[in-house]
Amino acid sequence: MVHTKFFTFNPFQERCTVAWDDSLEGVVVDPGCMSSSEKDALKRFISDNGLKIRYIMLTHAHFDHIFGLEEIALWLGVPVKMCERDIVIIKEANPLLCKEFGLECPNISERTKFEFVCEGDTIKAGELEFEVIETPGHTPGGLCFLERKEKLLLSGDTLFQGSIGRTDNKWADYDLMIEGIFRKLMILEPDIQVIPGHGPTTDIAYERMTNPFLMPFNEAYEE
Questions:
Q1: Does some domain include residue 7?
Q2: Pairing mode, if any, of strands 128-134 and 143-147?
Q3: Residue 105 included in any domain
Q4: 7 is in which domain, residue-wise?
Protein backbone atom coordinates (compact mmCIF):
# COMPACT_ATOMS: atom_id res chain seq x y z
CA MET A 1 0.00 0.00 0.00
CA VAL A 2 1.24 3.48 -0.82
CA HIS A 3 1.24 6.29 1.73
CA THR A 4 1.77 9.92 0.80
CA LYS A 5 2.58 13.18 2.51
CA PHE A 6 2.39 16.48 0.66
CA PHE A 7 4.32 19.63 1.47
CA THR A 8 3.73 23.05 -0.07
CA PHE A 9 7.00 24.92 -0.39
CA ASN A 10 8.41 28.30 -1.45
CA PRO A 11 6.64 31.38 -2.86
CA PHE A 12 5.49 29.40 -5.90
CA GLN A 13 3.45 26.98 -3.78
CA GLU A 14 5.31 23.97 -5.17
CA ARG A 15 4.18 20.53 -4.08
CA CYS A 16 6.80 18.16 -2.73
CA THR A 17 5.57 14.59 -2.30
CA VAL A 18 6.90 11.89 0.00
CA ALA A 19 5.61 8.43 -0.94
CA TRP A 20 6.35 5.19 0.92
CA ASP A 21 5.04 1.66 1.42
CA ASP A 22 4.22 -0.41 4.50
CA SER A 23 7.89 -1.32 4.95
CA LEU A 24 8.65 2.43 5.23
CA GLU A 25 10.74 2.45 2.04
CA GLY A 26 9.99 5.36 -0.24
CA VAL A 27 10.96 8.35 -2.33
CA VAL A 28 10.94 12.13 -2.18
CA VAL A 29 9.64 13.90 -5.28
CA ASP A 30 10.59 17.49 -6.17
CA PRO A 31 12.14 18.86 -2.95
CA GLY A 32 11.39 22.52 -3.50
CA CYS A 33 11.95 23.41 0.15
CA MET A 34 13.54 26.84 0.09
CA SER A 35 13.82 28.18 3.64
CA SER A 36 15.57 26.55 6.56
CA SER A 37 12.20 25.94 8.22
CA GLU A 38 10.86 24.20 5.12
CA LYS A 39 13.93 21.98 4.84
CA ASP A 40 13.74 21.18 8.55
CA ALA A 41 10.06 20.25 8.23
CA LEU A 42 10.82 17.74 5.47
CA LYS A 43 13.77 16.25 7.34
CA ARG A 44 11.80 16.03 10.58
CA PHE A 45 8.90 14.22 8.89
CA ILE A 46 11.24 11.66 7.35
CA SER A 47 13.16 11.13 10.60
CA ASP A 48 10.16 11.07 12.93
CA ASN A 49 8.43 8.43 10.81
CA GLY A 50 11.50 6.28 10.32
CA LEU A 51 11.24 6.43 6.54
CA LYS A 52 13.94 4.78 4.45
CA ILE A 53 14.15 7.04 1.43
CA ARG A 54 15.81 5.31 -1.53
CA TYR A 55 15.74 8.07 -4.13
CA ILE A 56 14.86 11.64 -4.86
CA MET A 57 12.85 11.84 -8.10
CA LEU A 58 12.49 15.01 -10.18
CA THR A 59 9.53 15.55 -12.49
CA HIS A 60 11.62 18.40 -13.92
CA ALA A 61 14.44 20.67 -12.84
CA HIS A 62 12.89 24.13 -12.60
CA PHE A 63 14.28 26.08 -9.65
CA ASP A 64 11.05 26.01 -7.64
CA HIS A 65 11.16 22.19 -7.64
CA ILE A 66 14.83 21.87 -6.63
CA PHE A 67 15.53 24.59 -4.07
CA GLY A 68 16.27 21.95 -1.43
CA LEU A 69 17.62 19.28 -3.77
CA GLU A 70 21.30 19.29 -2.86
CA GLU A 71 20.83 19.65 0.89
CA ILE A 72 18.18 16.93 1.07
CA ALA A 73 20.05 14.57 -1.27
CA LEU A 74 23.25 14.88 0.74
CA TRP A 75 21.40 14.57 4.05
CA LEU A 76 19.70 11.39 2.86
CA GLY A 77 22.75 10.10 1.02
CA VAL A 78 20.69 9.05 -2.00
CA PRO A 79 20.89 9.60 -5.77
CA VAL A 80 18.59 11.84 -7.78
CA LYS A 81 16.55 10.30 -10.59
CA MET A 82 15.84 12.72 -13.44
CA CYS A 83 15.92 13.08 -17.22
CA GLU A 84 19.32 14.07 -18.57
CA ARG A 85 17.73 16.58 -20.97
CA ASP A 86 16.84 18.81 -18.01
CA ILE A 87 20.47 19.47 -17.16
CA VAL A 88 20.09 22.51 -19.45
CA ILE A 89 17.40 23.80 -17.10
CA ILE A 90 19.78 23.61 -14.13
CA LYS A 91 22.70 25.17 -15.98
CA GLU A 92 21.03 27.74 -18.25
CA ALA A 93 17.36 28.34 -17.50
CA ASN A 94 17.35 28.51 -13.70
CA PRO A 95 20.01 31.25 -13.37
CA LEU A 96 18.04 33.47 -15.76
CA LEU A 97 14.66 32.71 -14.19
CA CYS A 98 15.91 33.24 -10.65
CA LYS A 99 17.45 36.56 -11.65
CA GLU A 100 14.11 37.57 -13.14
CA PHE A 101 12.35 36.83 -9.84
CA GLY A 102 15.12 38.29 -7.69
CA LEU A 103 15.91 34.93 -6.10
CA GLU A 104 19.13 33.13 -5.33
CA CYS A 105 19.58 30.23 -7.73
CA PRO A 106 19.68 26.75 -6.19
CA ASN A 107 23.23 25.52 -5.81
CA ILE A 108 23.73 22.12 -7.40
CA SER A 109 27.34 20.93 -7.12
CA GLU A 110 29.20 17.80 -8.16
CA ARG A 111 28.39 16.34 -4.74
CA THR A 112 24.85 15.66 -5.92
CA LYS A 113 24.71 12.25 -7.59
CA PHE A 114 22.38 12.05 -10.58
CA GLU A 115 21.07 8.84 -12.11
CA PHE A 116 19.39 9.56 -15.43
CA VAL A 117 16.18 7.76 -16.37
CA CYS A 118 14.07 7.63 -19.49
CA GLU A 119 10.84 6.26 -20.95
CA GLY A 120 10.18 2.68 -19.89
CA ASP A 121 12.48 2.69 -16.85
CA THR A 122 11.10 1.66 -13.47
CA ILE A 123 12.17 3.18 -10.16
CA LYS A 124 11.67 0.77 -7.26
CA ALA A 125 11.47 1.58 -3.57
CA GLY A 126 10.25 -1.31 -1.46
CA GLU A 127 6.99 -2.53 -3.01
CA LEU A 128 6.52 0.69 -4.95
CA GLU A 129 7.32 0.66 -8.67
CA PHE A 130 7.22 3.99 -10.45
CA GLU A 131 7.10 3.78 -14.24
CA VAL A 132 8.95 6.63 -15.94
CA ILE A 133 6.86 8.46 -18.56
CA GLU A 134 8.61 11.10 -20.63
CA THR A 135 6.40 14.16 -21.08
CA PRO A 136 8.61 16.93 -22.47
CA GLY A 137 7.07 20.31 -23.16
CA HIS A 138 7.16 22.32 -19.96
CA THR A 139 10.87 21.50 -19.94
CA PRO A 140 12.92 19.37 -22.36
CA GLY A 141 13.20 16.55 -19.83
CA GLY A 142 9.80 16.62 -18.16
CA LEU A 143 8.78 13.33 -16.55
CA CYS A 144 5.71 11.81 -14.94
CA PHE A 145 5.93 8.88 -12.54
CA LEU A 146 3.17 6.25 -12.53
CA GLU A 147 2.62 3.74 -9.73
CA ARG A 148 0.18 1.65 -11.72
CA LYS A 149 -1.01 -0.81 -9.08
CA GLU A 150 -1.59 2.02 -6.60
CA LYS A 151 -3.28 4.15 -9.28
CA LEU A 152 -1.07 7.14 -8.59
CA LEU A 153 0.42 9.55 -11.14
CA LEU A 154 2.94 12.22 -10.16
CA SER A 155 2.48 14.64 -13.05
CA GLY A 156 4.79 17.50 -12.06
CA ASP A 157 4.03 20.58 -14.14
CA THR A 158 2.76 18.65 -17.16
CA LEU A 159 -0.87 18.24 -16.05
CA PHE A 160 -2.77 20.22 -13.42
CA GLN A 161 -6.36 20.21 -12.29
CA GLY A 162 -8.00 22.15 -15.11
CA SER A 163 -4.75 23.25 -16.72
CA ILE A 164 -1.43 22.22 -18.24
CA GLY A 165 2.15 23.39 -17.82
CA ARG A 166 3.43 26.66 -19.23
CA THR A 167 5.26 26.58 -22.54
CA ASP A 168 6.11 30.26 -22.98
CA ASN A 169 9.89 30.14 -22.84
CA LYS A 170 12.63 29.00 -25.21
CA TRP A 171 13.15 25.69 -23.41
CA ALA A 172 9.48 24.70 -23.75
CA ASP A 173 7.43 23.16 -26.55
CA TYR A 174 3.63 23.30 -26.60
CA ASP A 175 3.22 20.65 -29.31
CA LEU A 176 5.32 18.14 -27.38
CA MET A 177 3.36 18.92 -24.22
CA ILE A 178 -0.02 18.26 -25.81
CA GLU A 179 1.20 15.17 -27.64
CA GLY A 180 2.51 13.66 -24.43
CA ILE A 181 -0.64 14.41 -22.48
CA PHE A 182 -2.93 12.82 -25.05
CA ARG A 183 -0.75 9.89 -26.10
CA LYS A 184 0.55 8.93 -22.66
CA LEU A 185 -1.64 10.35 -19.89
CA MET A 186 -5.20 10.53 -21.18
CA ILE A 187 -5.05 6.83 -22.12
CA LEU A 188 -4.50 5.83 -18.49
CA GLU A 189 -7.23 4.32 -16.33
CA PRO A 190 -9.79 6.98 -15.44
CA ASP A 191 -9.58 6.46 -11.68
CA ILE A 192 -5.84 7.11 -11.46
CA GLN A 193 -5.18 9.92 -9.00
CA VAL A 194 -3.10 12.77 -10.41
CA ILE A 195 -0.74 14.59 -8.06
CA PRO A 196 0.53 17.73 -9.83
CA GLY A 197 3.47 19.93 -8.93
CA HIS A 198 1.19 22.81 -7.93
CA GLY A 199 -2.45 23.05 -6.89
CA PRO A 200 -5.08 20.45 -5.98
CA THR A 201 -5.00 16.78 -6.86
CA THR A 202 -7.32 15.43 -9.54
CA ASP A 203 -7.83 12.25 -11.56
CA ILE A 204 -7.60 11.22 -15.19
CA ALA A 205 -11.37 10.99 -15.70
CA TYR A 206 -11.97 14.51 -14.39
CA GLU A 207 -9.32 15.98 -16.67
CA ARG A 208 -10.68 14.10 -19.69
CA MET A 209 -14.10 15.60 -19.11
CA THR A 210 -13.41 19.10 -17.85
CA ASN A 211 -9.91 20.39 -18.55
CA PRO A 212 -10.44 23.42 -20.84
CA PHE A 213 -6.90 23.14 -22.23
CA LEU A 214 -7.80 19.73 -23.64
CA MET A 215 -10.86 20.91 -25.56
CA PRO A 216 -12.42 20.06 -27.97
CA PHE A 217 -11.38 16.56 -27.02
CA ASN A 218 -13.15 16.43 -23.66
CA GLU A 219 -15.23 13.32 -23.09
CA ALA A 220 -18.89 13.71 -22.21
CA TYR A 221 -20.17 12.88 -18.76
CA GLU A 222 -21.91 9.53 -18.57
CA GLU A 223 -25.55 9.72 -17.53
A1: yes
A2: antiparallel
A3: yes
A4: 3-214
